Amino acid sequence: MKSIGALVIGDEILSGKRQDRHLAHVIETLGKRGLALDFAHYVGDDRGRLVELLKTTFARGDLVVSFGGIGATPDDHTRQAAAAALGVALVPHPEAVAEIEARFGPEAYPHRVLMAEFPEGATIIPNPVNRVAAFSVHDHHFLPGFPQMAWPMLDWVLATRYPSLQREASVERAIVVHDAGESQLLPLMNENVARYPNVKLFSLPSFVGEGHRRRLELGVRGAKADVDAAFEHLRAGVAASGFPFELLPS
């Protein structure tokens, strides 16, 4: 299965002028299919940086969902960066042009129609809000930055392009270990990872209370059959270590 990534593009995110809502939504949407992100990037309005990032993700064959930067103002670089990363021209897409003309009539020209220029070979993603299409190239899907438009378009992409892309939903089991540092349980963790390569182990240390008591959330995530065995190995190892622990609800 392809690696799945998300890009959130715009200086307004990095400066704090706007708060990103896309990443949490993508995680939730993929989770309904038993899928998860393998990576995510926040990228400013920097065409060169975006080109280099897209060259990498295109070359790997990743499935990428990108939000923002597909407009026609000077601070929008996503369409141009995608074309440059693929080494193709930016050309008017007939269907996208027709949609803009149908929506705006004569006011489509001379500026709005520029938003219908996509990398050569792109296909359109219909926009249910204002008919200004987004676009897909290979397994990269470039959506607007507005959640009201982008999220229905993401649903359309998944339903249309990837109807069968899903996995068994992951489960997670964990314990909280008290008074233990990660280094003290590192041999147990390494053994768990070696024994159960199909699950993901996680270790989340923190300090609680005025005395800064150590608290370690230790668990595994993956398919239920694999998780049950891996978790029992962790639980038994912690019990044998003598550190106090408690089970977290699964």
Written account of the structure:
This protein is α/β, with parallel strands linked by helices and 250 residues long. It has two domains: 4-161, MoaB/Mog-like domain (Molybdenum Cofactor Biosythetic Enzyme, Chain A), CATH 3.40.980.10; 171-247, ACT domain (Alpha-Beta Plaits, 2-Layer Sandwich). It has eight helices and twelve strands. Strands 2-1-3-8-7-6 form a six-stranded mixed sheet, sandwiched between helices. Strands 10-11-9-12 form a four-stranded antiparallel sheet. A two-stranded antiparallel sheet has the order 4-5. Helix 3 packs across helix 4 and helix 7 (182-195) runs antiparallel to helix 8. The two termini are 27 Å apart. The model has no long low-confidence stretch (mean pLDDT 96).
Q: How do the helices and strands follow one another from N- to C-terminus?
A: EHHEHEHEHEEEEHEHEEHE
Count of domains? 2
Strand order of the largest sheet: 2-1-3-8-7-6
| Helix percentage | 25-40%
| CATH level 1 class label of the largest domain | Alpha Beta
Rg, rounded, reads 23 Å
First-last Cα distance: 27 Å
Total beta strand runs: 12
Name the shape in a single word: elongated
Strand content: 25-35%
Q: What are the key terms here?
A:
250 residues, alpha/beta, Molybdenum Cofactor Biosythetic Enzyme, Chain A, Alpha-Beta Plaits, 2 domains, six-stranded mixed β-sheet, four-stranded antiparallel β-sheet, 8 helices, 12 strands, 25% strand
